[in-house]
Amino acid sequence: MSRDRLFLLQPGFTDPKQPGERYVCPHCLAIEGLLASDPALAGHLDITRVPFARPRQTVIAVLGEAHQGLPVLVLGDAAPAPADAQALGELRFVTDSRRILELLAERHGFARVH
Questions:
Q1: Residue 89: which region, alpha, beta or left (left: phi > 0; alpha: psi -120 to 50)?
Q2: Strands of 86-88's sheet, edge to edge?
Q3: DSSP state letter for 81
Q4: What does 14-73 look like in DSSP terms, one character per residue?
Q5: What burial class does residue 48 get, using C-beta atoms within 10 Å of its C-beta: 0-12 exposed, 13-18 middle, 19+ buried?
Q6: Which residues does 36 contact at the CB level (< 8 Å), separation at least 6?
Q7: pTM of the prediction?
Q8: Is the dihedral of CA 59, 56, 94, 38 positive or negative?
Q9: Are the C-beta atoms of 22 and 61 separated by less than 8 Å?
Q10: For residues 49 and 9, what is the distance between their CA atoms, to the nearest angstrom?
Q11: Rounded distance, CA 28 to CA 25, Å?
Q12: More confident call, 114 vs 35
């Protein structure tokens, strides 16, 4: 039985196009905030923080080169995948950050974002 796997950009990354500046992904940051609100629940899924630079080999190994955009929640088989999940063969995943927040509440018991 596989667990849900969440890929996020590492916070505080740099962009070669803007030397000397540090950034966070606003979509990932909202998810990071939810994860920090209940660290025990965060242990129920696999979380991988990926460097900003492409290619993102860790993500490519799971979803292929065309799906490197983050955040992404790859759905395990412990619960049925929602109808709106994207598919790559048998693999199901979600890339919309708002939907990821909803699924973390539904599938793992995190507080709902209001």
A1: left
A2: 46-50, 5-9, 72-75, 91-94, 86-88
A3: P
A4: E-TTSTT-EE--HHHHHHHHHHHH-HHHHTTSEEEEE-SSSS-HHHHHHH-GGG--S-EE
A5: middle
A6: 42
A7: 0.95
A8: positive
A9: no
A10: 5
A11: 5
A12: 35
The amino acid present at 42, given as its one-letter code, is A
CA distance 114 to 4: 23
**Structure tokens of 55?**
């290619």
Q: Which two tokens stand for residue 10?
A: 């590492």
Which pLDDT does position 114 carry in this prediction?
A: 84
Cα–Cα distance for residue pair 39/92, rounded to 1 Å:
25
Residue owning tokens 């939810």 = 34
Two tokens, residue 110:
């995190």
pLDDT in tens, 9-36: 999 999 889 999 999 999 999 999 999 9
